[in-house]
Amino acid sequence: MNFYEQLIYKILYFFLKTVGLIPFGVSQKIAKFIAILFFYVDKKHQRVVMESLAYGYPQDISIYQLRKNAMDVFYNTVLIFFEISWSLWQNSDSFKKHCEIEGFINYVNAENQGKGVLLLTAHVGNWELLSIAISSLGFKTNVLYRPLDFAPLENLMVNIRSRFGSKPVPSSKSMRKILKALKNRESVGILLDQNVDWYEGVFVDFFGKRACTVTGLALIALKTKAPVVPVFLIRTKNGYKVQFLNEISLVETNDKVKNIEINTQNYTKAIENQIRCNLNQWFWMHRRWKTKPYCNL
């Protein structure tokens, strides 16, 4: 970074640290106010959230209840900023005190296979703190992410994600680093709930609609035979719950294309099931079904 970018970086970091001093109860109220404001001002994302969120609820849900749930989505999204700021004042030990660990045996069993672990996750709860939570348990974690174009913010987020020992890995040209990490029996976290262009993925069912999903995780699992374990960081009344779910069995047939499609569908189904348990904590602002199939099946 040049001098001006470094200056902006320091300003951003100072701002986050200052916000982190706000008592959590107060920051929740501020987040609620900001969320309500943006809900009514940002009509575009309000429409996206309400249209998408409707897929997760029964068809007879009232518009009033749908709007309330959509507002909760805005609130949970804004709250991420305040939680990241708060986390800057925590060390590994103090952060762990706010986390309940569930299903950790699933990770241990996968790790004991000696092939590394592929951690399947999604934009649920506060996904930005997930790598911090896992690293605080003492395990080497590599996190695949899409770099930001603004250098000061990019460096800030990388430093935040890596300060407990996790290693952010830019998604572009990442295959060699992923394979090396798995060979070293490390874990690799991959988000699999975002839309991609048709040439980057396959169409699988997600909340009853065809969603184009990146094939990278299935390809890596098929190549390395590394176990895939879903993990999510969910907000609770008392803090967070880190949930390690059962390993998703790898499906292999004589058809390579089918292998990718079936396994990607299984990974997506695991994400959908988790979202259904915490509907208002998923990032419904993302246009998950933006890429359309050539024909609807």
Architecture overview:
There is one protein chain. With 297 residues, the chain is α/β, with parallel strands linked by helices. The chain has a domain at 90-281. 48% of the residues lie in helices and 17% in strands. The chain is built from 11 helices and 9 strands. It has a 7-stranded mixed beta sheet, with helices on both faces. A two-stranded antiparallel ribbon has the order 6-7. Helix 1 packs across helix 4 (63-87), helix 1 packs across helix 8 and helix 10 (216-224) crosses helix 11. The protein is globular. The protein starts with a helix and ends in a 20-residue tail after the last helix. The mean pLDDT is 94.
Topology:
Elements: H1 3-19, H2 24-41, H3 43-53, H4 63-87, H5 92-96, E1 99-102, H6 104-111, E2 117-121, H7 130-135, E3 141-145, H8 151-162, E4 167-170, H9 175-183, E5 187-191, E6 201-206, E7 209-214, H10 216-224, E8 228-236, E9 239-244, H11 256-277
Parallel strand pairs: 1-9, 2-5, 2-8, 3-4, 3-5
Antiparallel strand pairs: 6-7, 8-9
Helix pairs in contact: 1-4, 1-8, 2-4, 3-4, 10-11
